[in-house]
Amino acid sequence: MFANKKTNTRGKGVSKLPTLKKRLEVLQPVTMGQMIGLAKEFAVSVVDVVLAEAELQTGKSQEEILTDVMEQYRHNLQAIEIGLKDGESILLGTVASQLGKIEGPKCFDDKFLDDVLLYTQAAQVGNHCIGLRPCAGTGDSCPYTGYIMAMMRAGYSEREVAEIAALFLKIGGLFRAGKVTTGCNMEGFGAGAACIAAGTVALMKGTPEQMEKAMVLALSPTIGVPCTPRVLVPALCTTHIAGAVMIGMYSAKLLLRVDIDVNVPIDVMFAMASQVHVQSGKHLVPTVVDFMEPFFKRKPQVEDLVEQHVKDAEQAKIEQTLKNADAISQNFAKQTLPITNTLGEAVVGGSSQAVGSPTNAARIAHELARGTIRKITVELYPELFARRAINIPGVLMGAAFGSSTADYDMYNAAVQKVREAGIEVNIVEGTEAYIQKITIETDQMTCWVDTLNRGGGRVHLRDASPSLEQAAAAAKRLGIVLA
């Protein structure tokens, strides 16, 4: 059924595969980065590396391996059929069969994308009917199986389908090993996005370099994202698993069409994801549970087994949580401005939080200064300190020249102009969270502003010299929003 390929996707033949296998004997099992590196080194496709490794690990032929791969998906493909026909999920209802009845495009005009999304949703519905065989979890099995089903329905050959399915299992297996606690970041959303990106590059005959970059881009926005539905809140899962498809396919198609600098290796991005995953499970999930528990689906037959005083305590907690959520939302509403004056001033440097806020703190300090500036000291909390390449030019243009966050000419020239003016600069890594303290020493006085970083170019002003009142008045004159 799966005849061995005579040539690989880059047309170099199979002459290098024996040498590749010798290298794999030493390295296997390989990481994603090693998989990409070997494909580049031996001028073969990434799928070639995946299959060569599997041959060594199992002693089976490629035909046997691909047959085994598709057998692993058989149950999950059946779940899709159930989801499409009349399956009903406790969380998603009959979303797949409803979509399936729509003539023509369901959500998007791109037929393949539309089909992958449909079958991914059907897999999730089917999961709640007959279960799915999990990879990192059942969540990432949904986009894998949905993508494979879309390929089958689109008329791709059995070999092509099985190769993409194998690639998903190789990458997904690494996420499976890394998923040690709860979190969509290493499952339906994170693993799903990375695999869909890799599969799309492979399907469109992209290079190993493009595949690595696409996986990095796809994985980045999923880092740390918890499972907000907790497998108990209706509907939320649908955008997690569909989001993986959308992000993965966009990342792949972008990298296949443009040349963009992506300098983070996939193994670094994956390692970071695995470690943030643990922290997310410890520190984010408890808050998620607090806010989502009021919306958990309950089964009466199970609730009958729980003592009433326990349910009463849960209900009281739920009511308090809803009150807290309302209070938080009301507090933020009070901090907003009319929609006619919502957007802040333009911010150069790429980030209103990392550049805009510290630059505005420096502008306030400049307003307080009198005399010729001799020295500027910048204290930034660790995260901002690490991003000093983009924020220090802004801080210096604000502190030394009073330039606005929109002055891109001064932003590009500020460091050199400060040097030319003979102004001493001292950049300090602070230890307090969010601190951005700017001190200006002149030939007449020393002034400073002690602020905390806020998004949108806003500043939380805590203290200042000569006085907090003067600093607040300066911020008002400059149009800087104090949070």
Compact description:
With about 475 residues, the chain is α+β, with helices and mostly antiparallel strands.
Q: Helices, strands, pairings?
A:
Layout: H1 17-27, H2 32-41, H3 46-58, H4 62-85, H5 95-100, H6 111-130, H7 138-154, H8 158-178, H9 190-203, H10 208-219, H11 236-257, H12 266-283, H13 285-292, H14 300-303, H15 308-334, H16 352-368, E1 373-380, H17 382-386, H18 388-401, H19 408-420, E2 424-429, E3 435-442, E4 446-453, E5 459-465, H20 468-478
Parallel strand pairs: 1-2
Antiparallel strand pairs: 1-3, 3-4, 4-5
Helix pairs in contact: 1-3, 2-3, 2-10, 3-8, 4-6, 4-7, 4-8, 6-7, 6-11, 7-8, 7-9, 7-11, 8-9, 9-10, 9-11, 10-11, 10-12, 16-18, 16-20, 18-19
Q: Which H/E pattern describes the elements?
A: HHHHHHHHHHHHHHHHEHHHEEEEH
Envelope shape: globular
Mean pLDDT: 94
Count, helices: 20
The major pleated sheet works out as: 5 strands, mixed
The residue ranges in which pLDDT falls below 50 over 5 or more consecutive positions are 6-13
Number of domains: 2
Kindly name the structural category: alpha+beta
| Ends apart, CA distance between termini | 65 Å
How many whole angstroms does the radius of gyration measure?
28 Å
Could you give the count of β-strands? 5
Structure description:
This protein is of the alpha+beta class and 483 residues long. It has two domains: 17-283, no CATH class; 352-478, D-3-phosphoglycerate dehydrogenase, domain 3 (60s Ribosomal Protein L30, Chain: A, 2-Layer Sandwich), CATH 3.30.1330.90. Helix content is 59%, strand content 8%. It contains 20 helices and five strands. It has helices at 17-27, 32-41, 46-58, 62-85, 95-100, 111-130, 138-154, 158-178, 190-203, 208-219, 236-257, 266-283, 285-292, 300-303, 308-334, 352-368, 382-386, 388-401, 408-420, 468-478, and strands at 373-380, 424-429, 435-442, 446-453, 459-465. It has a five-stranded mixed sheet. It is globular and about 85 Å long. Residues 6-13 have low confidence and may be disordered.
